[in-house]
Write a structure and sequence with these properties.
The structure is a homodimer. By secondary structure, chain A is an alpha/beta fold. The first copy, chain A, is built from ten helices and 13 strands. A five-stranded mixed beta sheet of chain A has the order 3-2-1-4-8. Chain A has a five-stranded mixed beta sheet with strand order 11-10-9-12-13, sandwiched between helices. In chain A, a hairpin with a 4-residue loop joins β5 (70-72) and β6 (77-81). In chain A, α5 packs antiparallel against α7, α6 crosses α7 and α7 crosses α8 (267-280). The longest helix of chain A has 25 residues, at 227-251. The first copy, chain A, starts with a strand and ends with a helix. In chain A, 56% of the residues are buried.
Amino acid sequence: MKKLVGVDLGGTNGKVAVVTPVGRVLESVSFPASEVLTPKPMVKEIVSQILKIWKDGAGIKSIGIGVAGDVDNEHGVVRFSPNLNWRKVPLKKLVQDELRRMLPATKLSVTVENDANAAAWGAYHVDGKTKCKNLVVLTLGTGVGGGIVIDGKLYRGATGSAGEIGHMTVEPGGRLCNCGNRGCLEAYAGGSYMVREAKAAIKQGRTSKITEITPLRLQIAARQGDKLAQELWNEAGYYLGIAVAGVINLLNPELVVLAGGVSQAGKLLLVPVMAEIKKRAFETPARAAKVILSSSPTDLGLIGAALLAVP
Amino acid sequence: MKKLVGVDLGGTNGKVAVVTPVGRVLESVSFPASEVLTPKPMVKEIVSQILKIWKDGAGIKSIGIGVAGDVDNEHGVVRFSPNLNWRKVPLKKLVQDELRRMLPATKLSVTVENDANAAAWGAYHVDGKTKCKNLVVLTLGTGVGGGIVIDGKLYRGATGSAGEIGHMTVEPGGRLCNCGNRGCLEAYAGGSYMVREAKAAIKQGRTSKITEITPLRLQIAARQGDKLAQELWNEAGYYLGIAVAGVINLLNPELVVLAGGVSQAGKLLLVPVMAEIKKRAFETPARAAKVILSSSPTDLGLIGAALLAVP
């Protein structure tokens, strides 16, 4: 069986996996990315992780890397990654050079893509089984990303920046987002913002049983009846629903996939999301759009990166 | 020179034109649509207007019709048009039948398309000169419509409903829209809503020199310094800017075209629109997106319909 290599590069962790051509993860390994943040050590780390998971590297034909940030896919350059604190890093070239050093005999193609774009391509294969033509994915994690597949192809837009659903305004005068704007979807449905809100509410005297607040603990607390946690999920789902309804009216997709760690909140998000879609999207496109939780919520990025890299 | 026929069918007026293959209008005629609202008399009217403008109809090869409403382009059926009060009207077949009756010897292809989708195709040719790959048009009239060109092709989505930018939520708890939702872009930037707001404000005691309020008079009044009119344009531009910034973050297009009668307000809209884009869109896609007023603001629909119909 043909096997592919996918890499997902975030600001805290990296993950390398061997993936089948239909997007099944055969083996994967995570590594802390925070200690090797400058490009060259990071590239050495990535390649050594690849060789660890795929022994001597024999038979590797392509490597796809998804990176959180503004990526020039055509030239394989990370224009800007706030998470990694990188600017204009020629990641494709650096990885190719390191691979040539480690595996002189091997010919390898390397592809670099924005992580949410890669996730859209992963969702197209894993959740859509390549059967739908138009798909939108929302990656719900610390922040909120997104990617779009149009007519069975990854849609990148004019500069590879398409899909930034997390920074669509959903509440014009609303919460301040790290991007500097007010009322972005991310400021309500991003995990780090939910945690921040919970902490602020408790500091201001709200009673809550949650301690050591994380998005996962907010899920557990909400299911156990914690009012503050429930409010935060309802609010996140409300604004997520407004954004998804807008995307449905604008793009009329067959499939909307919720992915990322925060999407594992499941019904805590889906119930308010569906309520807003019912209220705000037109009937014809709303009926045409299936809204689902991804079956591989945290691996779509590396799966998609691996599949995008196939020469 | 090859000549094409385009038709734009609204709820109040219809317009028929002879168009060149690059989208120049050679001749056009308008007719009141409100008196012939049921499908069969409307079809007779359309065909008689076509023959009036193109004498004996000799040489007509294709006719494109843009209709305000939910259109099934594949089968040429108007699923629902609130403006015309039509449901499930097989417009393509009706027009073909009438044409065969009037011009038995002629073979003609007829295409039916949503009017804002047609406008997007018109803008792609007239404003984009087919040089940009990804374009979004907003048709600002009584209401707000939109259409999308992706990779040089009209993007219709799963059910031909794509492009409903006017019904993206820009103010969650905001003004009631005719669609039943709250806070749609249309409820702020649609001409009829602006007129309604102006009337309500005056009724509530706001002083203003505007009489017999129309969107055009609101433009004139604003340019003459009328405070109420200026506030309404600023508000419309503010929400339009929020929507366009969202579209830029989501679709990363090369071109955003403002069209329709209300777009002739020009700077009254463009200044607040650009301010919101600067505030709310990411730098890379914002720099990549040219935001312009259409050079054929009220003819894009029929131009696009004519060009879409080319067999």
